[in-house]
Structure of Homoserine dehydrogenase:
Amino acid sequence: MIEYRGLKVALLGAGSVGSQVARLLLEHADELASRAGASLELIGIAVRDVDAPRDVDLPKELYTTDAEQLILSADIVIELIGGIEPARSHILQAINAGADIVTANKALLATHGPELFDAAEQVGAQLYYEAAVAAAIPIIRPLRESLAGDRINRVLGIVNGSTNYMLDRMDRFGDTMEDAAAVASELGYLEADPTLDVEGYDAAQKATILASLAFHTTVPVEAVHREGITGITKAQVDLARSEGYVIKLLAIAERIVDETTGEEGLSARVYPALIGREHPLAAVHGGNNAVFVEAENAGSLMFYGAGAGGKETASAVLGDLVSAARRHVAGGPGVGESTHADLPVLEIGRVTTRYQVTLEVADEPGVLAAVAGILSDGGVSVETFQQSVASSDGTLSTATLVIGTHRALESALAATVEQLASNAHVERVVSVLRVEGAE
Ligand code: NDP
Ligand code: HSE
């Protein structure tokens, strides 16, 4: 029998994810030891209430409310409390006590990542966070390690499962936004504060992490342009379907060149966008996540699977735990985050993409010429154009124009839409959506 070195593991949090991590760690101790080259002893679980009922039956004596004491005895600390404090302080304490850290805490990494990475680098510790983006899907390690020799140009992610579930219901079952939200809430898909999901905050936190890794640059969460899905209507979803698109909430990190200065930078943004039904991301249904990576040499890669769930997320956490244990066995300092590129994060106005603009206009002579003139003056080139007469009161009709543009600068498009909105022929700008996933 092989005698393994013993490593002490402290778990902070025993909620949906933490309880599954503890269960799997205890159930698969031998297998994990063989893979890690060290036995992993769970020395305690810090919680708020040691007597709270739990989904998983774990030895009572493991629970403690004294996280600080627990951390002092650990070689590896797994933080699954969530939020900023006390998670941040506990992680800093653990780093300074010489432990490696495993966390799934996207909110903390998006807001305090540089502070934690710096602290770890200073003492040679390592911080692992595979579960922080898209839970079970391996995406952090592929970006951080497997693709470290390539140059990534774009990352398009469906990284929020609950909003994907809602948009998917609207697309496939004809739900309204309200109906879809009610079902998502009933199934427990939404965060305790649903604004985090539907207003895109959760996706923006994940976009920060993805953009930082993909472009070797520290990207603050405040620099991520964020729009949620609350403005999306059933009519937009239906029109998208009829035009061969589906609406997805996308987290996008992209290498771009500022057209005015020639400066290379990156864009990080979250918004609902149209994506062609033939694109692999269009086939991501329900609460699943997927990340589509475009790299200069590797080409297009897609990472797909469960973006939430206790045991699914625990799988990624345990993978990190094994990596941390192997590192302890091998010795040597941790490897810091690569931020050497230090690209500027360009504002949304500097981005170019394609758009679909839907207008209601008076069905009368001169309208098309006026609309075409405004688009042309704004530097927005039309790729597709459709007109349908929507209604008629006997004298005047209203026509709907659906205009698909070639790639245009966001600031130019926004100014053009403003011009369209104030034109006398235009009754209403019904919808402006970006079209992503195509050149
Ligand atoms: P839960 O809310 O289910 O669990 C949180 C746990 O932390 C509870 O056990 C709670 O204790 C404990 N806790 C809270 N405050 C303290 C404190 N001050 N001191 C000690 N313990 C405390 O969270 P999840 O398991 O869902 O999430 C954990 C992390 O994983 C978060 O960062 C989340 O973003 C991330 N994540 C979660 C996913 C999921 O599907 N759930 C997916 C991907 C990432 P008590 O039980 O006593 O109240
Ligand atoms: N609220 C998140 C989601 C949970 O819907 O994807 C996983 O991070």
Q: What stands out?
A: The first helix runs from residue 16 to 27. The first strand starts at residue 5 and ends at 12. The chain has three domains: 5-135+311-330, 140-306, 351-436. The mean pLDDT is 96.
